[in-house]
Design a protein that fits this description.
With about 800 residues, the protein is α+β, with helices and mostly antiparallel strands. The chain is elongated and about 115 Å long.
Length: about 800
């Protein structure tokens, strides 16, 4: 039967789950009973059994045809009805029984295939939390999930599902987020960290403060999308219907021609028997639903087969910037300290004062301090001043973080202002007892996976990549240049985004990716709207055709590969099956195939093609497997990168001091740089050359893949040696000579720029091969989109 475009109610599926196996059981029993009767010589009983089987299939087949005609869709089920009626009229009862079994088997197989393909989407529905343990004082009560109110304190036991969105209270929570993200490893959430509904508590009991109702929580939104998945027909299914539109008259003409040429109605019936591809055409939706299932395993919820099909045909990708190409949250990128303070001390004081602040920049400062393992003091007398920042007592001193009441004219402060202006970063000034001691620079960094993901998307068939953003042109074009985008449109309002998407849609199948409320209209206007749903607004998720439930842009590339593979398998199944049926029809028209043999042959064709459609469930073969040893090496050097990245600022700081003065403090800064280079940086680079690059040769295809990085290592060695030579000369003379200054400054600034670029290249090209399981959406802290505006 051709699939109906309207979503079927649940009771219909339950009835079908009973009728389909019952139909198969009755027709198969009638066929076998007739065979047994025929073998023992009871030909009349055998004929009667086969007639019963034929009539059993004829009744539902007629119902299917009438239902299709009422929808003005004449399909190939009409051929099945004609075949069954024809076998009865010409006395080919065995052929009729075989066709009946074929129809019942094909329908049961297709239903089972779709149930198997959709089991991951069904698992989402079954996993939905239905109750919660609410703590009131010393009493814990079990209540329905829909009764949980914002602010309630919930207790989630080991193995239980978090019922609503909220924040962790008390002990650290160990969570299994694989249902939402597809990531198999457990994650830890600290006190105060957000936690989403639907995740499983993989540790001991934990308390969660409800931040939303069950209906407004993350998992409820995903369930709403999952209920719609697979409800619509994809264009490839309509393509199968178009095949049926010409296949039906061809089959009837060929059967009529065979009858007229031979004068045998049996030959015409044989043609109709092998032209009964009802289960065959259902192979297309099986492949599409299989693709939906495969995508859901990776944390990609697709509303319909149509969205999957359109994604596979897309050639233009339009993206929002913030939260899509960038992390969508600020991160610390630099710390400048007064001469008598160290960057670590400045960060520790600022993070201690910021611990109780809800501001997004305060969260970034605290997260950076915790990532570095700095011991934070408990603040007292905390005062949040809108537009100014936070003031708190830390270690007996008054620490202020944010916008200062007065600016400093010190050289280091002017340097901080200049860097923030040049990099487009926000500044959080740090003062202790009314004395400014440091500045923390923050910006929204580029997602580490973004460059590699966009390369994968181009390889998948996208020919035009466009970025839309409401941000200023300067940072927007910087991102566009780094990622190699075809066009960048800045200062875009929601209406501008919709107009841009519609203009692109007039030219090609267009995909729009976004995560904010302001992206919702553009997502709805695109051929395919994709929402970054892990942290995105519910409005954008509701407007989108596809939701990435994990905060990873590279899942879009995975979804696109799945879409193209599903469509290829679906079309292949339909075309190959039709071709085999046409060949069998020609053989039957020549009288070389009896109706009974034709029925057996057609059954084999149908089963084979439907099984072929199920290949869309399998993951595509990966071009390069990453050995476990190589992955461990990658993670080792990635961790060293995180330790070394912040220390790179020493080179620029030393150069800045030399540019102002060549006194003893500048010479000491140069000594510290040399120690950093010889004791930490060069051993790291040599280790990469000796261990990492040889290990990457096989996964990347050849040693040539890392050749340019090896050349960069050689240049790093050269500049480090040059700086060491300058230091030896300066120590021999007691100061940096005037004749050394230009070359030494060039070496320091040049090495600083080279190392920043080199780190980014390695992170984006190599380290992303080993997924960052601690934070899949982890940004590359040294690059990306600036946060515009000041503190608070």
């Amino acid at each position: 039967m051709e699939p109906d475009s309207r979503p079927r109610p649940a009771w219909w599926d339950r009835v079908g789950a009973v009728i389909e196996p019952a139909l198969l059981a009755v027709t198969l029993a009638a066929l076998l009973a007739g065979v047994i009767a025929w073998l023992i010589g009871e030909r009349t009983v055998a004929a009667g059994s086969w007639v019963v089987g034929t009539l059993t299939a004829l009744v539902p087949a007629v119902v299917w045809v009438v239902a299709a005609l009422r929808r003005r869709r004449a399909g190939v089920d009409l051929i099945a009805v004609l075949s069954l009626v024809g076998t009865l009229l010409v006395g080919e009862y065995l052929a009729g029984a075989l066709i009946a079994v074929m129809l019942a088997t094909g329908r049961a197989l297709d239903a089972a295939a779709q149930r198997r393909a959709a089991r991951d989407l069904t698992a989402l529905l079954e996993h939905a939390p239905r109750s919660a343990r609410r703590r009131v004082g010393d009493r814990v009560e079990v209540v329905p999930a829909e009764e949980v109110a914002v602010g309630d304190l919930l207790v989630v036991g080991p193995g239980e599902v978090v019922p609503v969105d909220g924040r962790v209270e008390g002990d650290v929570a160990v969570l299994d987020e694989s249902v939402l993200t597809g990531e198999p490893l457990q994650v830890e959430r600290q006190t105060g960290d957000p936690v989403r509904s639907g995740v499983v508590n993989a540790g001991s009991a934990v308390e969660v403060r409800a931040g939303a109702t069950a209906e407004a929580s993350t998992y409820a939104g995903i369930v709403r999308l999952a209920r719609q998945a697979g409800a619509e027909n994809a264009p490839v299914v309509r393509l199968a219907d178009r095949y049926a539109a010409w296949f039906l008259p061809v089959a009837l003409l060929l059967a009529g021609a065979a009858w007229l040429a031979s004068g045998s109605a049996v030959r015409a019936v044989a043609v109709l028997v092998v032209a009964t591809p009802c289960p065959l055409l259902l192979a297309a939706p099986v492949a599409i639903v299989s693709g939906l299932s495969r995508a859901s395993r990776l944390g990609v919820v697709i509303r319909s087969g149509g969205a999957l099909e359109n994604l596979g045909n897309a050639t233009t990708l339009v993206m929002d910037k913030t939260g899509t190409l960038t992390a969508g949250r600020p991160a610390v990128v630099d710390i400048l300290a007064a001469p008598d303070r160290g960057p670590g001390d400045v960060l520790r004081l600022a993070a201690s004062a910021d611990q109780l602040s809800p501001h997004v920049l305060a969260e970034a400062v605290v997260a950076e301090a915790r990532a570095r393992g700095l011991p934070l003091a408990l603040p007292a007398d905390v005062v949040e001043r809108p537009g100014r920042g936070v003031s708190a007592a830390v270690d007996g001193h008054v620490v202020e973080v944010g916008r200062p009441a007065r600016t400093s004219t010190a050289a280091w402060a002017r340097t901080a202002v200049n860097r923030a202006a040049l990099d487009g970063a926000a500044i959080a000034w740090v003062s202790v007892d009314d004395e400014m001691v440091g500045a923390i620079l923050l910006r929204d960094p580029l997602r580490r996976h973004a460059p590699r993901t966009l390369r994968r998307l181009r390889a998948a068939g996208l020919t035009r990549l466009i970025m839309l953003t409401g941000d200023r042109p300067e940072p927007a074009h910087e991102i566009g240049s780094v990622l190699g985008l075809d066009e960048v449109l800045a200062e875009q309002s929601p209406a501008d985004k919709v107009a841009s998407v519609r203009a692109e849609q007039q030219q090609a199948v267009t995909v729009m990716v976004g995560d904010g409320v302001n992206d919702a209209p553009a997502l709805a206007a695109a051929t395919v709207g994709v929402a970054m749903g892990a942290r995105g607004a519910s409005a954008s998720s509701e407007a989108a055709d596809i939701v990435l439930t994990t905060d990873r842009l590279d899942r879009l590339a995975d979804a696109m590969e799945i879409a193209r593979r599903s469509r290829r398998v679906a079309v292949q199944s339909a075309v190959v099956g039709m071709g085999l049926s046409l060949l069998a029809m020609a053989v039957a028209a020549l009288g070389l195939l009896t109706p009974a043999a034709g029925a057996l042959l057609q059954e084999g064709i149908d089963v084979a093609v439907i099984l072929n459609a199920l290949r869309a469930l399998r993951a595509p073969r990966s071009g390069r497997a990453l050995p476990a040893d190589t992955e461990r090496i990658l993670r080792h050097f990635a961790a060293e990168h995180d330790e070394l990245r912040d220390a790179l600022a020493q080179l620029r700081d030393a150069a800045d001091r030399l540019a102002v003065s060549r006194d003893g403090t500048a010479l000491e800064a140069l000594r510290q740089v040399h120690h950093f280079l010889t004791d930490r940086l060069l051993p790291h680079e040599h280790g990469e050359e000796a261990r990492l690059y040889p290990a990457l040769a096989r996964p990347l295809g050849s040693a040539e893949a890392t050749a340019t990085m090896s050349r960069t290592h050689a240049e790093i060695d050269r500049l480090a040696t040059r700086i060491g030579t300058h230091l030896s000369l300066a120590e021999a003379n007691g100061e940096v000579g005037a004749d050394q200054l230009d070359d030494l400054l060039a070496s320091l600034y040049g090495l600083h720029a080279l190392l920043r670029l080199h780190f980014l290249q390695e992170e984006e090209n190599y380290f992303v091969l080993a997924d960052d399981t601690a934070d899949p959406g982890a940004p590359a802290r040294s690059g990306g989109r600036p946060v515009t505006g000041g503190r608070r």
